[in-house]
From TrEMBL:
Protein's recorded name: RiPP maturation radical SAM protein 1
Matching PANTHER family: ANAEROBIC MAGNESIUM-PROTOPORPHYRIN IX MONOMETHYL ESTER CYCLASE-RELATED (PTHR43409), BLL1977 PROTEIN (PTHR43409:SF7)
InterPro entries the UniProt entry points to: BchE-like, Cobalamin-bd, Elp3/MiaA/NifB-like_rSAM, rSAM, rSAM_horseshoe, rSAM_ocin_1, rSAM_sf
Cellular component per GO, a single term: cytosol
Domain B12-binding: 104-223
Iron-sulfur among keywords: yes
Record-linked Pfam families: Radical_SAM (PF04055)
Domain Radical SAM core: 275-510
Key words, A-Z: Iron, Iron-sulfur, Metal-binding, S-adenosyl-L-methionine
Transmembrane regions: none
Amino acid sequence: MLTDHRDVVLGVMPFGALHTPSLGVGLLHGLLMNAGRSVKTCYFTFEFAKLIGLRTYERISDGEPSRQDLLGEWIFSGNLFDQDRRSVEQYICKILKGADSDHALKRSGCEKITDREIEDLLRIRSLTAQFLEDCAIRILSYSPKIVGLTSMFQEHTAVLSLAKRLKVLDERIVTVVGGANCDGEMGAQTLKSFPFLDAVVSGEADETFCQMVEAFIHARYSDLAQLPGIHFRSRPSVDSPPQIHLSSSQSVVENLDKVPFPNFDDFFSAAKADYDANAGLYVTFETSRGCWWGEKQHCTFCGLNGSSMNFRSKSPDRALSEVTFLANKYQTRNFAAADNIIDYRYFRTLLPMMIERGIDLNLAYEVKANLKKDEICLLKKCGIEHIQPGVESFSTPTLKMMKKGVTGVQNIQLLKWCREIGVEANWGILWGFPGEDPAEYERMARLVPLLTHLQPPGGVGRIRLDRFSPNFSSARKYGFSNVAPVPSYSHVYDLPEEDVRNLAYFFRFDYGDNRDVDQYVHSLKEAVTKWQHEAWSSGLYGLWTSASVMVVDLRSCSAEDVVDYRGLEMEVLRSCERAATIGEIESEVLASGGYSESDLEIALSLLENRKLLIHMDQKYLSLLIDFSKFAPSIAVERIIAGMGRRDATGGKLPPFGINEPEHVSGTSV
């Protein structure tokens, strides 16, 4: 097979994502081209997906059956180490089937793996050697001087196995590995444990990668030693064996505007050839690095930004020019920001600019959960219809333990506004923090039936210790003991215990007080499962006129389907559209309506009892979704049309619209 020569080949291995290009590799591709070096990026992800089946690939890539089982890593690990039949059987028994207690905890929330699925996984393992051979031959066909491989999530053993095979086929080739799996101690240990690697890049490489390439090409090892974040192995000579040089610092890009646009040409070419072009492809882009909240107060469970927490963002003009360039070049509207958190200043700069210039894109961002309603409206107008707000819990004491900087009622308020405005929130509930109050989970379980008209969580997950998180780095302080890598690592890496610890990102632990966390979270899990099943048919809408609000309640916890509220009850619901203290409600309602404090107390009690209002964190919040802003399905409209109306006392009313004042706003049914 004849191909063009390339100075550098970059590779993306299984189980990298299929539906979006690698941002890190795209940035390096652009940097190398700007530096005058010829480069090719090979997405071997598509080829392996075709080999084992798209659905199977995506399940493993998504972390099934449990991310900390390291299934994707185990599949390729036999190419790094001699694993006999007994070793394979132990992984299947202890990890996949949950015989090991730490993995049994994860199994409890997953479907049990079947014998047929295990047979399929063993078949997939048997295909990896030839697959790696084919990958290596393809790379060598470009006659590169350097091969750079990215490693994130469950890509490490595939990457290392390919580097190992490349060295066997051509020992002159320079093998370099980088990515999130090489941050901190993990990067240094990767170089030390695998002698077929020439270098490991730890941290951001935008300002050092091209210099490293030139140093290797010209054998200037003294130059390599000056580059932050570059761990390397010098080539052996007649006088000395190869030496390992570990960098004591990491590179951090301060001005992101100077980073070139990423180049994703090879991804889209590969996707067009090997993947359904209409299968939900999107572009990953970035407008910032680090976390401005983490700089102030690091969320205790978060292991992101191991070496670069300090927040830096692109100027609004640069961010806008980049996303429009990528949209035009790759003819796509679908984008997901790699940012850990949106730059709050963008609500005053970038987002209004996008609206003003008529940018029509579908974007996803991570945000903090304390957004105001007008900010969520602004996100929607900009095409940011998918957010990851980091809700984590409805318990304010638990959120304080996490150092989230929000309250439970703020989280519910966010979900309410997202449902009303039409922004999808991707979130989950975390549990199992040392010292948390079990009563909080019972309280949340009682609260959940009131919230089934809102977006449900993706799941309810027990926390784990991630490297770089405060829970890991200060484990004793936060109540964790006997911290060790999750057992799956020892089945993947046949290395000394300390080396495995340095390579690991996920860690198991014991509680200092020996609490049984599974027992007190059971009711919440059941409530959430019911929520997930009911969400599609549930609803709680308010249809407002100048004289009343008709409440349409499709939740299973409701006592009445349709009830009209007038007077003080209507005013309270309006006043509590956002979470309000009793003082704020009094100043808004009592001053203008001629009602007494006793009247207000009765109204609040009535609305709480009917589960239309919640009282949390010294605030009241109406759970109604404004029907005028929410577009229900035809099925919901029909359900509403067929319901009988009642007033707050239970008396029947005529169909909505008959003998009523005209609407102040909204859509009639």
